[in-house]
Specification:
four-stranded antiparallel sheet; alpha/beta; 16 helices
Length: 427
């Protein structure tokens, strides 16, 4: 077992350039094989935070700084409406997000489908956005958790990505370094994400929650399934359009449900409201009144989008701002009945092949490509109905089209739908 000193010394050596690639690889492999205890995970996370700078905020903002982290899944665009919704409730959300790899899309990639959106901001610009607007969604800066950047790249090469201790320290170190006091986690399970079973998601939720709380952040969690894509859109610009629908008080039921629940949990954690019910009401109000959309529009402008473009995107129902694919192909239902689920990995693999995601970090994206479902679980379809539209600029590989066509499960039983939220873990 490792002492706190051992871990601190090792992380410091790593950041100072005193660890060779082969030494780092061997260390990661040892951790992967032996695992880290919760205490060791907490120490590693703390050392990773201390390897860089922690964002500091004015004293009068105490308790107002909050964030959310999702373990990621097909069609997960919750961050886009949630950050401005929380800002509209008076909180401050300095959200540092990532890029997509594999079947999960990255929040930054989605936002980059908005012309002019800048993900790299200086710390000064982030502070100014907290002051003036209350939210930003930005990429990781080199000054925050440099140890994580080094370890993350090496984990990919050494195939040690799946270690719970390493996943936990990577996620929580970046959140603690934001200087937040409340965090909500969205832990996914099912076919459309990395934790295939509910048991794995529960184990991860416990590790993340305990590690985050051991470092002084009030932490709640939602465990939600990915047995179908989240919402109806999979692909970068398509998901932005759907997030805008949510910010208009519309959009898919499950997206709104998660935004409202996670937002409410943060409002309770940050002591803005006393009960989850009051929190849900407040988030619903800012989505329905346009207050959250106003914050989103202000955030876009501050992050480099021209004012007239941001205004058209956020106010026009049918806008020509987001990139559109040249070709669409319809998927048609072969029978009538109720949609039970849509197998998410078949949809994701098709979207990735068309350019919506990356198989390798250097892959270039086609931000207009993707799949837009016309149904969600619980909806009725008739034989011959279009249940999905594929947006593409290149030919669809036949085997992937075939898998996508077979992804929908239609039953004669209306009540076979799995609720999106499996459980919630409050303080």
């Amino acid at each position: 077992s490792l002492s706190e000193d051992d871990i601190q010394t090792w992380v410091k050596l790593l950041v100072d350039g005193g660890v060779s690639d082969s030494q780092l690889g061997a260390w990661l492999m040892a951790v992967y094989v032996h695992g880290l205890s919760l205490q060791e995970t907490s120490w590693l996370t703390k050392a990773m935070v201390e390897s860089g700078i922690t964002l500091t905020w004015p004293k009068e903002w105490a308790g107002q700084l909050v964030d959310k982290h999702s373990t990621g899944g097909v069609g997960d665009k919750v961050s886009l409406p949630l950050a401005p919704a929380l800002a509209a409730c008076g909180l401050k959300v300095p959200m540092i997000s990532g890029r997509g790899l594999g079947i999960t899309g990255g929040t930054l990639d989605k936002l980059e489908s908005i012309p002019g959106y800048r993900v790299q901001l200086s710390l000064e610009e982030i502070k100014q956005m907290m002051e003036e607007i209350g939210c930003c969604i930005v990429g990781q800066t080199g000054q925050i958790c440099p140890a994580d950047k080094l370890m993350y790249a090496a984990r990919d090469i050494t195939n040690t990505v799946g270690s719970l201790g390493l996943i936990t320290s990577s996620i929580i170190s970046k959140k603690v370094a934001e200087g937040i006091s409340s965090l909500v986690l969205d832990i996914k399970w099912g076919a459309g994400c990395y934790q295939e079973t509910l048991e794995k998601a529960e184990e991860m939720a416990a590790a993340l929650k305990q590690t985050s709380e051991s470092l002084g952040v009030s932490t709640t969690a939602v465990i939600s399934h990915m047995e179908s894509p989240l919402g109806r859109a999979v692909g970068n610009s398509l998901e932005v359009a759907e997030a805008l629908d949510c910010l208009r008080g519309q959009g898919p039921r499950d997206l709104r449900e998660l935004v409202v629940m996670e937002g409410a949990m943060v409002l309770v954690s940050a002591k803005v409201v006393e009960s989850l019910e009051k929190g849900k009401q407040q988030i619903e109000n800012v989505l329905d009144s346009g207050a959250a959309m106003d914050k989103f529009q202000q955030m876009l402008v501050k992050q480099g989008v021209e004012e007239n473009i941001a205004a058209e995107l956020c106010t026009a129902d049918n806008n020509n701002i987001l990139p559109m694919a040249t070709t669409t192909t319809n998927l048609v239902s072969k029978i009538s009945g109720w949609v039970e689920k849509v197998e998410p990995s078949a949809i994701a693999k098709l979207a990735i092949a068309l350019g919506a995601g990356r198989s390798h970090p250097s892959d270039k994206l086609d931000l207009s490509a993707g799949v837009e479902l016309h149904v969600e679980p619980g909806d009725h379809v008739n034989q011959g109905d279009v249940w999905a539209v594929v947006h593409h600029n290149k030919d669809i590989p036949a085997h992937l089209l075939h898998s996508a066509e077979a992804a929908i499960t239609i039953t004669q039983d209306k009540d076979n739908v799995l609720p999106r939220i499996t459980q919630i873990l409050l303080d």
